[in-house]
Amino acid sequence: HRKPAPEIIATVSSYPGKLLNASAPRWGSADPNITSYGFYGIELGNLGELHDGDVYTIRYICRQSGETATVVDTIRNLKKEHAVRRDLTLKKSKEIPPPQQLDRDIWGSGTEMRLFWKRPKPGLKFNVYRRDYRRHGYFELVAQDLDRTFFTDKNIQGDQIYGYLVVSVDEKGNTSLPAPEINNIAGSDFLTDIRYPDQLKNDVRDMARVVAMPTEITLSAGSEEKVRIVRGVSRMEKPGEQLLREARELLTIDLSPFQAADEKLFAGIPVLSFENPDRELLYWSAFSLMRQVMLPPEGKCGYNYYVFSREPQWGWGHGGQVFHESLTMLAYVFMDPLGAMNSQRVYRERQYENGYINYRTGPYLDEKIEYNGQLTSSAPWYAWQNWGVYQVTGDRDFLSEMYQSSKRFYNYYVSNRDGDGDGLCEWGAHAVLESVRDARVAVWDEVGWPSNFEGVDVNSMLVMEAKSLAAMATELGLTKEATHWRQNARKRAELINRLMWDEDTGFYYHLDKKDNDFTFKKPNDLKREEIIGFLPLWAGICDSLRAARLIQKLTDPQKFWRKYGVPTLAADDSYYNPKGYWNGPVWVEWDYLILHGLVQYGYSDLAKELVKRVSENMISQLKKDHQFWEFYSPDDQWAGYHRQYIWAGIIARMLMDVGN
């Protein structure tokens, strides 16, 4: 957005006198409420407890264009729906004009705040709202129907941080959108402070996005100077002096033991030959990422476990492990073989007697998500991961115990996800979450709920699970069981090829569960070219002729062969958005599955080209902000939404698999 910044205002009928704006906390996310990619959000729960029947109003203004939009709706089915999408259409504003030229004076060393503004047209009065940033996520009415164009807030304590919104009120009581928020923190410009360091003050207040600590270092030619910076973060209840004491201790601690341990850890990683130095840095950085999100045993976890990301504001990234994130263990195992095996053991130690494994498993969380009488599980990549980890470690004890665990999980899954008993499975329980692709999915959003379909994705995964179980059984000398698993895989693969392949378009699609065709509500509405249509290539399901048809589709630059990798939806689909979610961006671990298929079918040159394309965007982001991201744009040097995301680390395995 070009300045001035846009704004969101939200109110709920049961909380008169309170409102939220774009600065309100967004629970479990590091994203702002107004993002650069057009998918906005606001947490109405900041106002307090919500109830079915509450009426909410959300108003949006683009101050740059002068356009506004409003949605008024009722909260329904709150126990089941925690996130609701509402689309807004911007139109030229007919709103009451907000106060103009809002400004402030701070008096009495910060104890008194005076707001002043200009009346946009005669007859308007004004309401003032204030937010206590240390206590609340909402603004509360503190002055109503002011006829004057100023407001004074007195007796502000030294540690209080207040934000203020001022709105116009007409004679009917209708209110305008607010003037831009203003607060009682004296502002400063970072670049100006760097340019003129003598004007800097030593006191640091909250709400600072950048904290500058200037110092001078003089270096002569050939000399060096070491600088150590310690950043201490703790919960509010921890005494500040204790945190400061611990931070000071770290300024003098001997780092050599940590360096030696780190060097030992990295010493086991295969050393590849790189012609491109940037790609080499990407390779080693990916291992650093994976190591940084691995944590020691605690709580219910008897083994080391990982978090999705150590981004502190992203709450649900800290809950624990899921199978789709554990694809990263196929790369991490080269750095820490025992750690990768133990991470997989976290699932085994929490597994139910009937074979069920949680959707998410962490030290303090068993996330089961009961939905429609079923428990949500993770997408079935479990046996394939365990077999892949064993192929690197060669640990027979691990193989034996994880074969039994993988077998139990497979049997549970196919027994509870084939509602019509036809030999093909569908996603179950909270099917959107279980399918991994949990937002902005073309078929889920525009056709129907996933459990209505025989999924080409879930059934391809189950073929690979059965193949992996066969390989594990063979390695353990369980010949009869290996034969059973091979027959199981072959039978499911035959069904996929017979029913899910469309000869006209040369692609695999989901099926309507009722009659096994590509029509659910409208003719052929399931024929959406999503990345999951390539999973039969990864699972070795298709013959060479169908593989060639898939490659033809894959390498079409108007569809999937984009500048920076393979998107999750064909670029010529009307729902495509390269900066969306599961409707366009490159998710690195899914491109790894495609790479696996390319190598398996002998398309090694295409595999190398794919890795090159994906790497290029990842490298550009690392150079720009030193971050690995949840996903990347296939068309531009852009990445989102969550940073330091573990599964981006799979790029290390991709580089290995093509010999860099």
Descriptive overview:
By secondary structure, the chain is α+β, with helices and mostly antiparallel strands. Among the domains are: about 1-95, no CATH class; about 95-185, Immunoglobulins (Immunoglobulin-like); about 415-555, Glycosyltransferase. About 30% of the residues lie in helices and about 15% in strands. Strands 5-4-3-1-2-9-8-11-12 form a nine-stranded antiparallel beta sheet, with no helix packed on it. A three-stranded antiparallel beta sheet has the order 6-7-10, with no helix packed on it. The chain has a two-stranded antiparallel sheet with strand order 13-14. The model has no long low-confidence stretch (mean pLDDT about 90).
Strand order of the largest sheet: 5-4-3-1-2-9-8-11-12
CATH-derived topology of the domain at 417-554: Glycosyltransferase
CATH architecture of the domain at 417-554: Alpha/alpha barrel
Question: Can you count the beta strands?
Answer: 24
Low-pLDDT residue spans: none
Biggest pleated-sheet summary: 9 strands, antiparallel
- Briefly, what CATH class of the domain at 417-554? Mainly Alpha
Gap from first CA to last CA:
39 Å
Helix content: 25-40%
Total helices: the number is 17
| Residue fraction in strands | 15-25%
Shape: globular
> Averaged pLDDT, please?
91
Structural class based on helices, strands and sheet pairing:
alpha+beta
Radius of gyration: 28 Å
Annotate the secondary structure layout.
Layout: E1 7-12, E2 18-21, E3 55-62, E4 67-74, E5 91-92, E6 100-107, E7 112-118, E8 125-132, E9 139-146, E10 150-153, E11 162-169, E12 182-183, H1 190-195, H2 240-252, H3 256-267, H4 277-292, E13 294-295, E14 305-306, H5 329-332, H6 337-350, E15 360-361, E16 366-367, E17 370-371, E18 374-375, H7 382-393, H8 396-416, H9 431-434, H10 442-446, E19 453-454, H11 456-475, H12 479-500, E20 501-502, E21 507-508, E22 511-512, H13 535-538, H14 544-554, H15 588-600, H16 604-625, E23 629-632, E24 639-643, H17 651-657
Antiparallel strand pairs: 1-2, 1-3, 2-9, 3-4, 4-5, 6-7, 7-10, 8-9, 8-11, 11-12, 13-14, 15-16, 17-18, 19-22, 20-21, 23-24
Helix pairs in contact: 6-7, 7-8, 7-11, 8-11, 11-12, 15-16, 15-17
